[in-house]
Amino acid sequence: MPSRQAIKDAQLEQGLFLRRLLFVGLLILLAFAAVIARLIDLQIVNHEHFTTLSQNNRVRLEALPPPRGLIYDRNGVLLAENRPTYQLEVVPEQVRHLDETLAQLGELVAIEPSDVDRFRRMIRRRAPFQAIPLRLNLSDEEVGILAVNRHRFPGVDIQARLGRHYPLDAATAHVLGYVGRIDERELARIDARNYNGTSHIGKIGIERHFEDELHGDIGYRQVEVNAQGRVLRVLDRQPPQSGRDLILGLDIGLQLAAQEALGGRSGAIVAIEPQTGEVLALVSMPAFDPNLFVNGIPASTYSALRQDRAQPLFNRALTGQYPPGSTIKPVIGLAGLEYGVTTASRTMFAAGYYTLPNDTRRYRDWRRQGHGLVDLDLAITQSSDVYFYDLAYRLGIDRMSEFLDRFGMGARTGIDTTGEAPGILPSREWKRRTQNMPWYPGETIIAGIGQGYMLTTPLQLASITATLAMRGERVRPRLLRAMVDSGDETPQWTEREPLPPVSVRDPMFWDQVLEPMVHVMHEKNGTAYGSTGRDAAYMIAGKTGTAQVFGLGEGEYEEDEVAAHLRDHALFIGYAPAESPRIAVAVVVENGGSGGRVAAPVARKVMDHYLLNGHPDDSPNGRPGGAM
Amino acid sequence: MFDGETPRETLGRAVARLLHLDFALLGGLLLLAAIGLTILYSASGEESAMLLRQLVRLGAAFAVMVLLANLPMQSLRLWAPWVYGAGVLLLLLVLLVGDIGKGAQRWLDLGVIRFQPSELMKLAVPLMLAWYFAEKPLPPAFRHLAVAAVVLLLPVALIVKQPDLGTALLVASAGLFVIFLAGMGWRYIVGLLVLAAATAPVAWHYLHDYQRRRVLTLLDPERDPLGAGYHIIQSKIAVGSGGLYGKGWLNGTQSQLEFLPERSTDFIFAVFTEEFGLLGALLLIAVYLFIIFRGLYIAVRAQDTFARLLAGSLSLTFFVYVFVNMGMVSGILPVVGVPLPLVSYGGTSMVTLMAAFGILMSVNSHRRLISK
After folding, report:
1. I need a labelling partner for A556 at 20 to 30 A (CA). Which of A243, A269, A626, B361 fits?
2. How close A213 comes to chain B (CA, Å)?
3. Between B223, B243, B331, which is nearest A43 by CB?
């Protein structure tokens, strides 16, 4: 063995090579035998069958697109449905002179150049015998005209298809999103097999996020057609599998009430059920009619929407980022208690401004004369800025941003839809990374009242409010409540998804910041007492906030003197009933001015609708006996 | 075998010998090219411009063949590692800066011509492996097999990444044939097969859903009767309706009425069998078999290990082309983009193929030069 390995043995190698070659030669013969056997099978044994197929190569396979899943609200109200629409289809193979035919069709019904462009692009991608839509959404009149002239155009047909329709139009636009025609980018992404008969796809929102579930599985039918492409009979059929229906946690009645409560102002409202994280209402105003987008929006309408200064296409609830302002104070207060830099009984004198040691810069309170001697309760109830400037200074930015992070501040909540913005939770590290600048002490001070770099979305605010209501228990907000398979009645409920809870050293700390939030609403000196809490039929815990749009420096401004679009945003967060929360609400009214006067009453209307109306079968724990 | 020659045949053989050409192989290839042009005329819808372009390509490819036939084996052996090294570098370059042609990065734009380095690897990999094993005692020891595996897998992995599965398959088989012919032990072969069978389900587990769907459609195109499956359904109808004698030249309805996609490139065998039937197909297969076995015969008669392994591998790779293409068209193999050599329209692989035949001829004439 070793001697044989050491030197090359030409004789042995040649023998080995020959044996290997013989083996391979045999394999080659076997392989060709297999090919020949297959050819005999196709060309002799099944010759008749294939001859028939080739003679009648008029047996066609047609894709049967699956009906898209429907979307309901929590009470079974239909939010997205499929309606029959008529479309003009052309089988390119059956048309002798395509350009001529298109021109003649254009004389009968309106065909936009963009329709023709899309049609020509699709010709290249589909088999020549497949019907390709030329015009969607024909009116009854157009259907009539085409039907009369039908005989003049072989290979042209009117097809009834199911088209998406949103019966509540603008009210659900920012929640559901919408479907639209599949574009080039999406074509590259989707499973071409399953979308063979599908013309529309979810573009944004729920429609996009749950595209796979809503779409369903394609079916086929084998049909015999005559020379003009007319279907003579159906030979075989494999039905499509409809998409799954979605049941959202949304309460459409509440959604409409919230929309109305905004009273035509720009802004956003998010309402969450704190225990489950289910989103009960998600409003962004102004909105738009999603039905416009389903069959291709006319360019003029689209640019009008785009250029509207009120930005109706912008989803304020998910994508809008606002400074949280004073609404962040209860969380900062909790951080102060947790880190032992303050106690519930500690008092300080809050003048009209605050200065850092060894610094002359004055940080002003919203109330020019200050609040006098304040403790934590009074500081939240009356929203003392100076108390929280001091608290922020005692905490420092590192502990403050670490504690806010536990509440999910400055991070996407991970809600089950598209377009959510993360907001910003400033920290030393964040500032170095994004601006390559050190952190300045003054920035810590204004962070204590939710100003400066800090940004949050209304959804994030609602989620933080729910966390307060649940005393630190956190749940990921979600829109989907259940899914129902087609042909199956039993809903599959979405699992509640708990997040890492916020825990504090002493559970009493929660009471020490949540009770003041009740005082905000129900004590005479509370910032939302007069406008909102005074006559409420149940107990609310809330916090008002005002976010500066505009760097004010050391000065103040008179509301009336400032242009409307530079006025402060009015904010409010709150939950109710205070003793056993069932709804957590965040409200942002853009350029609304005062959170107490403007945003809080909006939230009250939402809570009233949810707790007082329309839930006769619910337990009456939302109606306290008047012990305020 | 060629007794009773006329004076003209003798002249032809004399010219062939002078140019270091193998007369039998050359005859087979010319016959094949003629058959190819005939059926291409039909498949192209009687378009003579297309025929002309193919003719120019064939001319260029045959010129490359003659060039390589005149290259002595020693030089080829000397260059083998350099060609391989350059090829791998070019593959890396393609991945970094490659031109995006047909959605995949394969091309290197050299200004005047566009060059596909993965084509070069079809020759470079067997060259390199034959060079490597030529010096080693055979059957190869385990460590030599391990080195060979690296030499093979590096370019294959780079080509798969482009992604070009058809070419990767051909390069891999060219390399594997060298290793097999070098005498890799049967226990290693069986071991590898068992390992592959065992890891397949694990790999499947780690695939994404959409990747699984693609694999499934590849294995079972009828899953997607309007997409990938459309090719194979129409192709089977073309082949089957051809019958024993075929519908006659220019009379195939599947191809002439354009039901059959890619009828002048990858699916040209379907046009051929539709128009010339089973008998035509048998003739074509006979020509291919003749060429393959002539190549193997040259390999057997080669005088050293390098030439022997190289000639064997190149002939067997040619077989893989033919078998994969015919198997795909007749629906017994999945649809992979492999052309029918010298018959399918298109030039990228034709030059490489003819270069391989040039090398085979060089192996043959080189032997004769010494023995005479």
Report:
1. A269
2. 14
3. B243
- In tens, the pLDDT along A129-169 reads 677 888 888 888 888 888 888 888 888 888 888 889 999 98
Are the folds of A60-248 and A252-292+318-484+491-621 the same?
no
Residues listed for chain A: 628
ipTM of the complex: 0.91
Phi and psi torsions of A449, nearest 5°: -115, 25
Residue A2 has pLDDT above 50, yes or no: no
- The answer to whether A325 and A586 are in contact (CB under 8 A) is no
Distances (CA, A) of B349 to A125, A499, B30, B333: 27, 58, 17, 21
Inform me whether the C-beta atom of residue B296 falls under 8 Å from chain A C-beta atoms. yes
Q: What is the 3-state secondary structure (H, E, C) of A532-574?
A: HHCCCCCCCEEEEEEECCCCCCCCCCCHHHCCHHHCCEEEEEE
| Best residue of A8, A12, A38 to probe chain B, by most B CBs closer than 10 Å | A38
3-class DSSP state of B280:
helix
Confidence at residue A1, expressed as pLDDT on a 0 to 100 scale: 40
- Please judge whether B227 and A192 are an interchain contact, meaning their C-beta atoms are less than 8 angstroms apart: yes
CATH fold of A60-248, please? Penicillin-binding protein 2a (Domain 2) (3.90.1310)
> Could you give the angle at which helices A329-338 and A385-406 cross, rounded to 10 degrees?
80
Domain edges within chain A: 60-248, 252-292+318-484+491-621
> Distance between CA atoms of B256 and A538, rounded to whole angstroms?
81
Integer CA distances (angstroms), A622 to A164, A482, A578, A582, in order: 39, 26, 9, 8
Beta strands A245-248 and A71-72 are parallel
Helix (H) or strand (E) holding B53: helix B48-69
| Residues of chain B contacting A128 with CB distance shorter than 8 Å | 258
For CA atoms A74, A76, A77, A82, give the dihedral sign. positive
Taking alpha carbons only, the member of B75, B50, B33, B70 closest to residue B342 is B33
| Prediction pTM value | 0.61
Q: Please report the sign of the dihedral spanned by the C-alpha atoms of residue A369, residue A373, residue A378, residue A383.
A: positive
Distances (CA, A) of A365 to A204, A347, A497, A552, B120: 42, 17, 40, 13, 77
Residue B285 bridge partners (DSSP) = none
> Going by C-beta distance under 8 Å and a sequence separation of 6 or more, which residues neighbour residue B96?
none
Residue corresponding to tokens 């300080």? A348
Share the mean pLDDT of chain A: 87
Q: Which residues of B touch A14 (CB under 8 A)?
A: 308
Three-class secondary structure assignment of A479-548: CEEEEECCCCCCCEECCCCEECCCCCCCCHHHHHHHHHHHHHHHCCCCCCHHHHHCCCCCCCEEEEEEEC
The per-residue b/e assignment along B235-244, b for 16 or more CB within 10 angstroms, e otherwise, is bbbbbbbbbe
Contact list, A21 vs chain B (CB under 8 Å): 181, 296, 299-300, 312
A293 three-state secondary structure: helix
The helix or strand, by DSSP H or E, that contains position A387, with its residue range, turns out to be: helix A385-406
Please, which pLDDT band fits residue B315 given cuts at 50, 70 and 90? very high
Q: Which CATH number fits domain A252-292+318-484+491-621: 1.10.443.10, 3.40.710.10, 3.40.50.1000, 1.10.3720.10?
A: 3.40.710.10
Residue A269 CA: distances (Å) to CA of A76, A279, A410, A423, A589: 22, 11, 18, 17, 9
SS3 A183: coil
Q: Please give the structure tokens belonging to residue B72.
A: 């002595």
Distance from the B111 Cα atom to the nearest Cα atom in chain A, whole angstroms: 30
A39 contact residues in B (CB cutoff 8 A): 239, 273, 278, 281, 330
Give the chain B residue whose CA is nearest to the CA of A129.
B259
Q: Does B183 touch chain A (CB under 8 A)?
A: yes
Active-site residue A326, yes or no? yes
